[in-house]
Amino acid sequence: xxxxxxxxxxxxxxxxxxxxxxxxxxxxxxxxxxxxxxxxxxxxxxxxxxxxxxxxxxxxxxxxxxxxxxxxxxxxxxxxxxxxx
Length: 85
Prior knowledge:
Blueprint: E1 5-7, E2 14-17, E3 21-25, E4 31-34, E5 41-43, E6 48-49, E7 59-65, E8 71-78
Antiparallel strand pairs: 1-2, 3-4, 5-7, 6-7, 7-8
C-alpha cells in the first residue's frame, strides 16, 4: 500500500505519515487529522479563541513545529455548530 510522509513546509521535519491519517477535509479549513504525530509537533497549553473566519467563537490549542516554530494547525477544544460533526 502506498504511503506518504507529512513534513513541515518550513524546515521539512517529519510530522506524521499517511498510516496515521484518520480524516481529511478539503472545505474552508482544509485540514488533516492524524491519530499520532512525531515529537516535532508541539501544542500550546493556553487556549486561543477564534475572533474571525471559520474559527469564529471556537476555542483551540495551536500546534507548532518544534524545529522551526511554524504554526501547523490546531486542536479544537470547543467548536461552533458548523464544525461540530
